[in-house]
């Protein structure tokens, strides 16, 4: 240990373990060892040992600032309360701030189209997860909105592309289509059609005209090949 470390420990012991006569009337609390734990208690009681804010640069800055002192943008400080109390106060303020936008946005959203992708059995317990990798992309030049996703189970080698016009009153051709990778990466005609079948691990738009996909071999064996491919959207 360096002399600096020893000084830190000595200062800590001096500050936190000195006698606290004001606590003598509290059962079992004769020494000031609860300076950290008191902030973490989930209760509304005042702190046993409130912090000393004398010399704090932030508080001095607020006192000297006429505009900031009364600003509604600054969250009020409660020096006598625990962090749990402050957390509840802040959550209440945040909920209040978000309620109005949520109401406005919620009323402005409406369903533009409904596409049936698959059907599931009546039993919810046996329903498999079929929808995967939804990735959104907005082509601002052409005012088109894209959704990339894959369907598991019976179509793991396909990636689906949903395209909609941002103006819901207009439609575009080929609103939804699927691209099948299959065995298109076979190097020679001697390879069988089933020897190197690929499925999509991930897919994102690289730009307005290019889709980047991560492919893997579908065969169940060690050392599966991974391929990073960029496909033109056309």
From TrEMBL:
The keyword Cell cycle applies. Transmembrane segments: none annotated. It comes from the Eukaryota. This is APC4 protein. It holds the Pfam family WD40_APC4_C-half. The gene is Anapc4. GO terms for biological process: anaphase-promoting complex-dependent catabolic process; cell division; protein K11-linked ubiquitination. InterPro entries: APC4 (IPR024789), APC4_C (IPR056358). Residues 136-234 form the Anaphase-promoting complex subunit 4 C-terminal half WD40 domain. One of its GO terms (cellular component) is nuclear periphery.
């Amino acid at each position: 240990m360096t002399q600096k470390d020893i000084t830190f420990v000595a200062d800590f012991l001096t500050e936190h373990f000195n006698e606290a006569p004001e606590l003598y009337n509290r059962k079992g609390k004769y020494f000031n060892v609860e300076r950290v734990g008191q902030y973490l208690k989930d209760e509304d009681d005042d702190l046993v040992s409130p912090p000393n804010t004398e010399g704090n640069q932030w508080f001095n800055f607020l006192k000297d600032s006429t505009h900031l002192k009364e600003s509604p943008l600054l969250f009020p400080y409660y020096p006598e309360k625990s962090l749990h109390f402050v957390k509840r106060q802040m959550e209440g303020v945040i909920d209040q701030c978000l309620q109005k936008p949520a109401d406005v946005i919620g009323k402005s959203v409406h369903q533009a189209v409904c596409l049936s992708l698959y059907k599931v059995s009546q039993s919810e317990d046996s329903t498999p997860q079929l929808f995967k990798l939804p990735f959104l992309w907005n082509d601002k030049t052409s005012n088109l909105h894209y959704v990339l996703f894959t369907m598991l189970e019976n179509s793991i080698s396909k990636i689906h592309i949903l395209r909609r016009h941002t103006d819901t009153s207009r439609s575009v051709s080929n609103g939804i289509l699927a691209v099948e990778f299959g065995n298109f990466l076979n190097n020679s005609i001697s390879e069988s059609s089933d020897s190197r079948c690929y499925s999509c691990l991930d897919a994102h738009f690289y730009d307005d005209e290019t889709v980047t996909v991560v492919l893997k071999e579908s065969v169940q064996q060690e050392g599966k090949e991974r391929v990073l491919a960029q496909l033109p959207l056309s």
